[in-house]
């Protein structure tokens, strides 16, 4: 080969590689910095009406969607159709089978020493009263702890009434102490010989609308009917008891268990550009109780997370990893869909990078927390900087999971908690007042913007986010 030919080949190769380098440099220059991409998507989401539009669709076209009802099936169909209409890359369902419960007639009245109709609701999975109802003297306990500490047979033949008021906090921390009465009231009352239990609603409102919710029986303890009365009626009961006269109530509940039913977790994905098998999970529960239309609990979470993934999926520069939105079945009656998801996907834990769930209404997010390995905290710092314009502060690295992420968290998945202002959440929770008019569109948009920041940064991280072991100091 002559020197001229060699020189010509060398020149062409030099030109070829130079053009590759130039193209790469041009591409790199054309692609904005990650912070610029996320800032733009955040600001876009913060002005969007999409989450409100999704919620309006769910509450109007489906409404209440208690697990195991025809509305449950309609909600699953709605979710599949909505994911597809929004342009998600993959959409599918996974079956979840459970026992059902059917609410029918419910009533209560004070028959002595005065006469009053009471606004009550049956607690989930309560047995019915006899068809003619139960009329009995009422014994009053301030708290579930007072009932537990009372003498054996202290409530024999009586209806137990527990009057503890739930305290209002932005974080919702008053729920845990108060909800013990709903969860275990029937068991503890039955141990003392009661024929039924009625609790003050687990809520912070002053409306004459009782709050439903799940209660539990215990094997080996007699099952008795259980209901909740509205807060104003519970106040009335306390005033009646202050007269120091025997009080009688007539209670009639017509509710019963139904057949087994198969619903579905509904899942939609926006595929990552480099590591499609690795996913960041966001989501909410699709079911609701039957009294309202499930706008706040948890239609808002459904809308927020679907809209956030849509914003990211439509971006010119997608993150490296997949955004997976999971709409869980039957959260209200025991995290049934969440447990089914963990049973199916727990073996793929390594590809579940992290997750966050929206299930605390439609108030603005004011803070967030993480639960990640300490070498991932630089990623969290990026999130904190980009969430600050939304009025969101970083709290700590001690986050717990949302309810439906508990099973995956227990297996070892890292989690984030985006803290919504829940000051008014328990005014509406599990009541007939849980309707669309209580939701502010701008609050949904702010939530969506926060989830966009979290999900994009987590999905685009150079280093995979893990739970790790937290150091103690």
Describe the structure.
The protein is built from 13 helices and 14 strands. With 473 residues, the chain is α/β, with parallel strands linked by helices. The chain has two domains: 34-89 and 271-460, Zn peptidases (Aminopeptidase, 3-Layer(aba) Sandwich), CATH 3.40.630; 103-255, 3-Layer(bba) Sandwich (Glucose Oxidase, domain 1). Helix 5 (144-149) links the parallel strand 4 (134-141) and strand 5. The chain is elongated, with a radius of gyration of 27 Å.
Overall geometric form:
elongated
Mean pLDDT: 94
Query: How much strand?
Result: 15-25%
CATH architecture of the largest domain: 3-Layer(aba) Sandwich
Tally of contiguous helical segments: 13
The termini sit apart by 71 Å
How many domains make up the coordinates? 2
Given as residue ranges, the uncertain stretches (5+ residues, pLDDT < 50) are: 3-14, 20-29
- What portion of residues is helical? 25-40%
The CATH topology of the largest domain: Aminopeptidase
Instruction: Write down the Rg.
Output: 27 Å
| Helix-strand topology string | HHHHEEEEHEHEEHEEHEHEEHEHEHH
For the record, what CATH class of the largest domain applies?
Answer: Alpha Beta
Question: What name goes with the CATH superfamily of the largest domain?
Answer: Zn peptidases
- Count of strand segments: 14
Describe the biggest sheet?
Answer: 14 strands, mixed
Structural class: alpha/beta
């Amino acid at each position: 080969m002559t020197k001229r030919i060699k020189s010509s080949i060398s020149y062409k190769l030099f030109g070829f590689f130079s053009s590759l380098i130039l193209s790469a440099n041009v591409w790199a220059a054309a692609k904005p910095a990650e912070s610029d991409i996320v800032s733009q998507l955040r600001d876009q989401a913060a002005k969007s009406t999409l989450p409100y539009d999704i919620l309006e669709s769910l509450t109007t076209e489906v409404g209440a969607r208690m697990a195991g009802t025809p509305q449950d099936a309609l909600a699953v169909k709605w979710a599949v159709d909505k994911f597809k209409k929004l342009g998600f890359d993959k959409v599918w369902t996974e079956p979840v089978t459970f026992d059902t419960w059917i609410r029918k007639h419910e009533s209560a009245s004070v028959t002595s020493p005065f006469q009053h109709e009471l606004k009550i609701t049956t607690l989930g999975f309560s047995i019915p009263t006899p068809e003619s109802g139960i009329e009995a003297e009422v014994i009053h306990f301030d708290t579930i702890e007072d009932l537990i500490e009372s003498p054996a047979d202290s409530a024999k033949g009586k209806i137990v009434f527990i009057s503890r008021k739930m305290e209002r906090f932005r974080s919702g921390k008053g729920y845990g102490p108060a909800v013990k009465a709903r969860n275990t009231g029937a068991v503890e009352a039955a141990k003392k010989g009661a024929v039924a239990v009625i609790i003050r609603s687990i809520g912070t409102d002053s409306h004459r609308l009782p709050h439903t919710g799940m209660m539990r029986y215990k094997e080996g303890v007699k099952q008795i009917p259980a209901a909740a009365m509205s807060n104003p009626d519970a106040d009335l009961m306390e005033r009646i008891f202050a007269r120091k006269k025997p009080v009688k109530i007539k209670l009639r509940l017509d509710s019963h268990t139904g057949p087994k039913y198969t619903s579905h977790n509904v899942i939609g994905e926006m595929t990552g550009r480099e590591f499609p098998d690795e996913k960041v999970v966001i989501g909410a529960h699709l079911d609701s109780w039957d009294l309202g239309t499930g706008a706040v609990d948890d239609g808002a979470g459904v809308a927020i997370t679907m809209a956030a993934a849509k914003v990211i999926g439509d971006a010119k520069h997608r993150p490296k990893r997949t955004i997976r939105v999971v709409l869980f079945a039957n959260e209200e009656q025991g995290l049934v869909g969440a447990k089914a998801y963990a049973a199916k996907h727990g073996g793929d834990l390594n590809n579940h990078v992290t997750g966050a769930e929206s299930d605390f209404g439609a108030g603005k997010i004011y803070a967030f927390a993480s639960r990640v390995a300490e070498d991932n905290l630089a990623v969290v710092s990026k999130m904190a900087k980009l969430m600050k314009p939304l009025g969101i502060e970083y709290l700590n690295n001690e986050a717990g999971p949302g309810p439906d992420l508990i099973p995956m968290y227990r297996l070892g998945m890292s989690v984030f908690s985006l803290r919504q202002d829940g000051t008014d959440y328990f005014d509406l929770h599990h009541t007939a007042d849980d309707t669309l008019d209580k939701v502010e569109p701008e609050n949904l948009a702010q939530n969506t913007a926060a989830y966009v920041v979290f999900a994009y940064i987590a999905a685009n991280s150079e280093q995979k986010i893990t739970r790790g072991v937290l150091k103690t100091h």
